[in-house]
Amino acid sequence: MLMPLKHITKDAACMLCPRLCQAKRGLGEQGICGADDTLRVARAMLHFWEEPPISGTRGSGTVFFSNCSLKCSYCQNVALSQGKAGKTVSIERLTEIFLELQSQGAHNINLVTPTHYAREIVAALDQAKRASSPLKIPVVYNTSGYELPRTLQNLESYVDIYLTDFKYASPEIAAAYSDAPDYPEVALEALKEMVRQKGEYRLGKDGLLQEGVIVRHLVLPGHVAESKLVLGRVFDAVGNQVCYSLMNQYTPMPSSPPELQKKLSEQEYAEVIDFALDLGITNSFMQEGGSAAESFIPPFDLSGV
User: Fold this and answer.
1) Tens of pLDDT, residues 207-220
2) Contacts within 8 Å (CB) and 24+ apart, 21-24
3) What is the rounded distance in angstroms from the CA atom of residue 163 to the CA atom of residue 161?
4) In this structure, what DSSP letter does residue 96 have?
5) CA 244, CA 247: separation in Å to the nearest integer?
6) pLDDT tens column, 136-162
């Protein structure tokens, strides 16, 4: 039986993500993700850089949460993922942020790296839906894909759209770059649960996604073979029930391993696109050449917080 998130006690061992670190975060202990008993947000904004059915014409109401359970050595948002950026807010303030984004015209509420704050997010969404001018727009769960199905099951009635990564198919590469050799297996089971909940990817007459799953894959330089393995595994599992977003925006960071201290070539990206089309993928997005740039990294300056 699932334990509803809202019923988790302060002294409970944290089991929200696949790390299963069992930190008693409610008592101030820090989990592997870096989070403790405080809720931290680094930025809340109308975001126009997501996939077109998410950003639309008015933007996605994006909330960037601090900390992350997946420690990618090439992370483009390292200040965010390591918890260096962000401000402690209350559940009441998070509720206000959701409603403020809606009033600004956001097409949806976009929760970025949210899982370690799932309990607080659920509480804020409950409050927002009971407000005098209640939250009515869809909720997007923007995740690394490193998720437990049971946590996702607790979110089923709160989340309308899953915007999930599928980073790796090989345990060795997942271990080397994200210290998570179980990532391929975990991400596949999580994806199956997301599709079970939301069904086939469908757009409304306005071109916006109201419910469904988008699977993102960032192609890494020198790793075309791995990208092909990822696409093959995902397509075998869920086919065209999801939309595939193939990303070429990899930006080398100071923390990136030596073999990733370069940009993705146009030839590498084109090879992955051709492979996706040959697989029979019909719902997909691709990025134009030259997308890799630090402009994809928003300033986590507490705007909107």
Assistant:
1) 999 999 999 999 99
2) none
3) 6
4) H
5) 10
6) 999 999 999 999 999 999 999 999 999
